[in-house]
Amino acid sequence: MAQLTIENFINNEHVKPSLGNYFDAFEPARGLPYAKIPDSTKDDVELAYKAAATAFPEWSKTGRPERAKVLYRIADLLESRLDEFARAESRDQGKPVELARTVDIPRAVSNFRFFAGRILHSVEEAGELPGVGFSYTQRMPIGVAGLISPWNLPLYLLTWKIAPCIACGNTAVCKPSEFTSMTAYLLCSVLKDAGLPAGVVNMVFGTGMNAGQAIVEHPRIPLISFTGGTVTGAKIIANSARYFKKLSLELGGKNANIVFEDCDFDLALKTSLRSSFANQGEICLCGSRIFVQRPIYERFLNGLVQGAKALKVGDPTKSDVNLGALVSKEHWEKVVSYIDLGVKEGGKIECGGQKPPSLADEFKNGYFLEPTVISGLTPSCRTMREEIFGPVVTVYPFDTEEEAVALANDSEYGLSCSVWTENGRRARRVAGEIQAGTVWVNTWMARDLRMPFGGMKQSGLGREGGEHSLDFYSELKTICLAD
Ligand code: NAD
Predict the structure, then answer these.
(1) Domains of the chain, with CATH numbers?
(2) Mind telling me the catalytic residues?
(3) ipTM of this complex > 0.85?
């Protein structure tokens, strides 16, 4: 089959990369190249920047109701193409179609709908200043934003940036991950069909080293919203420092899952299976360190192992498949190297750890990996401290509430945590002590777009979500009027 060639999207037109270079995108389930991706350079970023800068004056002055209308139209059009987008996301990323159909794409639709509504209903601050007059705040669009996204939830995380960015009146140069360009490419036609003016959103495809870095180092792109790894986040801070850019960084995690003996056992187990292995464990919010109170430790571990063994790994298009393929060969090798490290560090592989033996011939070269549960490691081991970002979890017993909190907080990361207990007071106490941007009690991955989202420690800088997104994507100005 002929390979599809993706092109950049600048000024609402598809354009070839300036040097004419492309690289292959691989289909993770088959391990075969299936599309050509532009290897964009600084020159392509400059073209995109110019389009965005030209579109900015008019878009930034377009009233909120008009902007909201376009965002609602984008949401509707995207929703009407749900199945097509879900299939494309799955083929490109490796995840089950069903997951993309029920989570990734609907959440991308919600991103546009939510921020359309939010700018319509958000109210700025105003207050009387006795003896002087009164003060009020005004939100000013900032300019051209650089939006850089990862490969694990490609469309969902890219639209999490595009929607508030343009809702606030900015224009954008976007760079999706080089591993997953397809749904961003499809989105371009949705944006155009929805009537988004030319130049408001521009898409430059390519690598982090070339296109990504050119965005970060562009002197006239004053804000960068980045989701990706912590090491890349540090580079972005360093490379943008001299320009005093506004940065929002959503980075890695090594999230704890604390299971108390008084939990709803079946619910905790069922959800822990999901939080361990959904999207092949490639969600920054996956709970990869499971701490279980000793009286239920053996029973929980057995349940987790039995549950993991029962999960189906394989053809992502099949509706009964739970895990598809990991995103790339390099990532598969990285995850497997952590399983090997876990064994060297004294861990016991309770289940998984291998490529599934029973894959159909067409998937034999795919990047599949069995869900893997490791016990017997100590919290100082690298396997329990470093982000693996695959279908691998460690399980460890604890005795007291204080110990559980200390174990969970003993991490360089602080993205999310889930706590399982039926004791409401304990839930509030523990949630209050946990150093993480999001704590779920008796649930996981519930997303409330009105709430702040972000990480503590090396999991990120800043918060997005609700009013926090509006704060990031606009300059807040105070105006004081004398009587
Ligand atoms: P990554 O850091 O390798 O890449 C992310 C994006 O940054 C890609 O588009 C990449 O091309 C680009 N990039 C790479 N180097 C760059 C540079 N020097 N300058 C500018 N851009 C550059 O991350 P990844 O492997 O795509 O994604 C996995 C990571 O993302 C994991 O660590 C995961 O935890 C994290 N993540 C975090 C969240 C969150 O909300 N906190 C959500 C999803 C993923």
Answers:
(1) 4-251+459-482 (3.40.605.10), 256-452 (3.40.309.10)
(2) 250
(3) yes
